[in-house]
Amino acid sequence: MRDAVLRGLAEDGGLYVPVEIPRLSAESQERMRSLALPELCIEVGRHFLVDDVAEEVLSKIAVEAFDFPAPLVSLTETIHILELFHGPTLAFKDFGARFMARLMGFFVRELGRELTVLVATSGDTGGAVAHGFLGVPGIRVVILYPSGRVTEAQEKQFTTLGQNVTAVELSGTFDDCQSLAKRAFADSELREKIFLTSANSINIARLIPQMFYFFWAIAQLVDRAKPVVFAVPCGNFGNLTAGLMAERMGLPVAQFIAATNVNDVVPEYLRSGHFCPRPSLHTISNAMDVGNPSNFARMLDLCNNDLQAMRRDLWGCGFSDEETLQAMREIYDRHRYVVDPHTAVAVLGWERFRKNSTGEYPCVVLATAHPGKFASTIERAIGVRVELPARLAASLSQPKQSVPMANSLADLKKFLLS
Ligand SMILES: *Cc1c(COP(=O)(O)O)cnc(C)c1O
């Protein structure tokens, strides 16, 4: 596990998956009902990390990483919103990033080496990773992002920190950033000269902490008689892959809903059986603007490369910006609850699934971003100005610092080796 975490990608360029997924006993899942979130993380995480991390160390990592709440808010008896956006960057990626940063920090201290973390972001990953690693000794962080394609609030979260964090502003799309990062990881000269790793959702260390909150959600449901539908807003499918792993551990799931915006290559695959990656389109749920989801290979692997098996686990659908804005309005009118555009896509997924299904299930919607991060879209949808959380407001007033760069591996290499 230590190798997988520090490398990110395997030698052959493939993605790491756990060889074996341990099964949690019924007693273990029952015990989770009375645990606080960091304790629950230990209950789940120790099965994967037992060989590399002592339980006291894991406990310290979990307590430090998850020092914010993750409440389950019930809109009705059926629909429950798991608010994963109370961390420092107000998005669910804080879970993966904060846990991974502390785990890597522990591993590099053990090895006595200097590590460069290179991460491509379409918006929120950059902020979460930068904040996650900020000030961790022995680690340099390089954030690669597409110029002009992230919101100002997102950009400020990783361009104003300084210390061990540098932002590289690429003229290109997110897919360009992602493919450049992949080429850098595969480059033999870079591999030889620096200790380079990824921190995208491709790193297995991000998926492990993302399993925790699926169990956490179920532990908090009052009525647990029925298996649960999880509605997941998807981009690179890290969240959904973590959910599949949790299911293999014994999480009682009726169905995962893979909800996307118009970048719907996975829902299309579930429909047609053809996986056709394509350049991403820009939408209001921009953290999900992904045309070639990097966790698709892992999902296939978890489903034994069997389309029918994947169809049993996943039900997919994609939605336009108009539908998303409409859903934000309806949710607000009906429940006086404000959702960000990403979460709205998941609610839409649940509503469509419900119309197409005969079963009666409770649904947990993963709420992935704080609405305050998308204030102008929310104002457009519901005419209400949501308060910008203080943390975000503070970073907005700082000056942006970034290194502009062409879409060129040679330039990136020069920068990384300097
Ligand atoms: C990253 C992100 C997603 C997509 O998550 P994946 O794990 O990449 O599928 C959804 N919503 C928000 C707000 C995000 O930042």
Structure description:
- By secondary structure, the protein is of the alpha/beta class.
- The chain folds into 2 domains: 2-65 and 92-204 and 398-408, Rossmann fold (3-Layer(aba) Sandwich); 72-90 and 207-391, Rossmann fold (3-Layer(aba) Sandwich), CATH 3.40.50.1100.
- It is built from 19 helices and 11 strands.
- It has helices spanning 2-7, 26-31, 37-49, 55-65, 93-111, 124-133, 152-159, 174-186, 188-193, 204-220, 238-248, 265-272, 296-302, 307-313, 321-335, 341-356, 375-382, 390-396, 409-417, and strands at 72-74, 79-83, 115-120, 139-146, 165-170, 196-198, 228-233, 253-260, 314-318, 363-367, 403-405.
- The strands form 2 sheets. A 6-stranded mixed β-sheet has the order 1-2-10-7-8-9. Strands 6-3-4-5-11 form a 5-stranded parallel β-sheet, with helices on both faces.
- β1 and β2 (79-83) form a beta hairpin.
- The structure holds pyridoxal-5'-phosphate.
- Residues 91, 93, 124, 201, 233-239, 287-288, 342, 368-369 line the site of pyridoxal-5'-phosphate.
- Pyridoxal-5'-phosphate binds at residues 91, 93, 124, 201, 233-239, 287-288, 342, 368-369.
